[in-house]
Amino acid sequence: MFTIAVDVMGGDLGPRVAFRACATVLQNHPDLRLILPLETSLHIDAQKALSRFSDRVLIKPCQSHIDMADKPARALRQGLSSSMGVAIQAHASGDAQGVLSVGNTGALMILSKRLLGTLGGIDRPALATQIPTRKQPLLMMDLGANLEMSPKQLAQLGLLAISWYRARGIMKPSIALLNIGKESNKGPEDIREAGKLLHRAAPECYAGFAEGDDVFNGDLHALICNGFAGNIALKTTEGLADWLTTMMADELSNSKSLRWLIPLWRHTIKRIEKRISPARHGGAMLLGVCGHVAKTHGKSDEKTIKYALEYLVKQTKTADQARLQSEFDRLQRGLNSPE
Amino acid sequence: MFTIAVDVMGGDLGPRVAFRACATVLQNHPDLRLILPLETSLHIDAQKALSRFSDRVLIKPCQSHIDMADKPARALRQGLSSSMGVAIQAHASGDAQGVLSVGNTGALMILSKRLLGTLGGIDRPALATQIPTRKQPLLMMDLGANLEMSPKQLAQLGLLAISWYRARGIMKPSIALLNIGKESNKGPEDIREAGKLLHRAAPECYAGFAEGDDVFNGDLHALICNGFAGNIALKTTEGLADWLTTMMADELSNSKSLRWLIPLWRHTIKRIEKRISPARHGGAMLLGVCGHVAKTHGKSDEKTIKYALEYLVKQTKTADQARLQSEFDRLQRGLNSPE
């Protein structure tokens, strides 16, 4: 058996949509158990929604939950008795092999750092997600946890990405820094400096700078940037993908000769959405903490939570966390060694 | 009559593709004249390619051209006798009402500043483009000229965008700052500070922060960001748009029941590409200089140059440059006045 702790209390749409997502994922994975920290008022609802899986769902009482609007300070004060705190503690104690939260990102960051600890050398964990591309998925990080980063922090993020892939058996992932030009003299000073550090610490994996239009090529395994750039890039593409799929549907409805194709076309649009959807609906991972922590955004609906939970199950099953730590430690020494 | 100076010498594909683009645009605009600064070796080619419009094309001799790889210092040394320098001088002297260059962006920036001057209060011009959205086009700036900007420089860019719209008769454009959250406490310090300045100087136009997924909504007239963020956002969406249109074509060819639709579908794809293409193929404007200066990227093909030239013709005809300057001066005083 295999256990994930799910904190469903902080989402905008309420925990009930999450119960339905949990039921689907439990159905798909007969070896999966879930720990659900819930305030008492929700226990009966949860039991009803998950009654078919009662032997694989453990409801844990908690006293509060952290709202999206709550300041991180509140997370520290009320954290341990909140649904999020109880979920992370279940992972820290070994009862669960991973945590998914639909809640406040800042609070998740603080509580994960405190209860799970971070990899040596990482000050603040980063948010990462794998986005689909023309070929292999691309691990993009940071997506908003660290708005500004020093060259060394950017380089550490690169080494973390390499370690993440090595923990999954991919020994020579190709990683790049997001920049506004490919030549080594392009872009801001801190990115150029980070490039030098990565070239020194991991020359076999570092592929130099990549530009925005390289994101979907599929030639890279990971793309490293500060949280501001990553958030902007990801959200802008989400906006465009939404618009383009609407536009295609409109094109068909407005055309007399094509309108009758809509039923056929709907099927194709569904398949395209499915191909690009893990990026748009799936969650983000908190990398740099000692554990498997993932989050979905506050507006997550049933589909989003289901994707994120499926993804976390897969990641947790296929990755060797001890390997990630040892690979990262080894690469870090290369970063810190004198030239 | 109405004249544009076109510098076609610096592009990667050579000047001949530009001659064809010029011919199409001359055909579409019977009141348009072009000034083409060209090295002597190209005069005969140009005369042949544009023979139908010989009464509306003035070929001006120049002694050199600035390559894409040239350092800006070279632009200053050889600038005035280069094709780019001759084109900008034609605008500065009033012989042309606008300039389009297929050449080096850094050199265009330096020579435009020197020969045309900048609006009072603007240190460095910005690159801007209008991208299509669900509703009205969105003026996005900066796109790469200024990688980092102070709060005051960001705010000036916002005022420049407002002035740009007012010079076109739109008195209350809605402008926003690109950020990673909508709340006023989100994002980096410099953006929050710029927000305060814009709120003070232009409360009737400033709409607060916008996120990446708002870019294509069409609710805004202008979106302001530093050149790093703007470049990343624009190029990432270009990459996704390319991939999505390929993916749709692939979906059809791979489906037995849909394959026969490809001829019909090709028509729809073309129309979608046309709707989104001004952003992908059109040029960028250099805003903040005293004049109408536009550029296309070095890899520009015939279609790209044609779009950019058409766009410049339209912008130059519809905008009142004196009005832009006076609006900007007035707004700037609001920015500089004590609180």
TrEMBL record, chains A, B:
MF terms (GO), sorted A to Z: phosphate:acyl-[acyl carrier protein] acyltransferase activity
HAMAP family linked to this entry: PlsX
Gene3D superfamilies: Isopropylmalate Dehydrogenase
Cross-referenced NCBIfam families: plsX
Coiled-coil stretches: none
Keyword Lipid biosynthesis included in the entry's annotation: yes
Reactions this protein catalyses: a fatty acyl-[ACP] + phosphate = an acyl phosphate + holo-[ACP]
Family: Belongs to the PlsX family.
Protein EC: 2.3.1.274
Keywords assigned by UniProt, alphabetized: Cytoplasm, Lipid biosynthesis, Lipid metabolism, Phospholipid biosynthesis, Phospholipid metabolism, Transferase
Organism in which the protein naturally occurs: Thalassolituus oleivorans MIL-1
Physiological role: Catalyzes the reversible formation of acyl-phosphate (acyl-PO(4)) from acyl-[acyl-carrier-protein] (acyl-ACP). This enzyme utilizes acyl-ACP as fatty acyl donor, but not acyl-CoA.
GO terms under biological process: fatty acid biosynthetic process; phospholipid biosynthetic process
Subcellular location: Cytoplasm
Subcellular location, principal: cytoplasm
EC category name: transferase
Pfam families linked to this entry: FA_synthesis
Protein name as it appears in the record: Phosphate acyltransferase
Assembly, per entry: Homodimer. Probably interacts with PlsY.
Pathway(s) the chain acts in: Lipid metabolism; phospholipid metabolism
Gene Ontology CC, one term: cytoplasm
